[in-house]
Amino acid sequence: MPETTIATNYMKTNFPVIQEDRQKAYTLLQDSNVNWTIARVPFINFNSGAGHMGVNLDDCLGNKIDAGNIASY
Fold this sequence. Notes:
The relative contact order is 0.18. Helices cover 45% and strands 8% of the residues. The protein folds into 2 domains: 1-38, no CATH class; 41-73, no CATH class. It has a two-stranded parallel ribbon. It is built from 3 helices and 2 strands; from the N terminus they run H-H-E-E-H. It has helices at residues 3-14, 16-30, 67-72; strands at residues 43-45, 64-66. The protein is mainly alpha-helical and 73 residues long.
């Protein structure tokens, strides 16, 4: 089972309100005329970041990311 599926199931079980809010945001964007991209990330390390950041449309490439790398994305 992909890490994304495992993490999503965990969030749905333990944080249902957050997951519902994320789905509402996605639906609003999808139904709009706005050119949009959602970047959802795993656990965030609050530091400046330095290094490679990968992007994958099917699954998370890791289980954490540096805040600085998110900002540069």
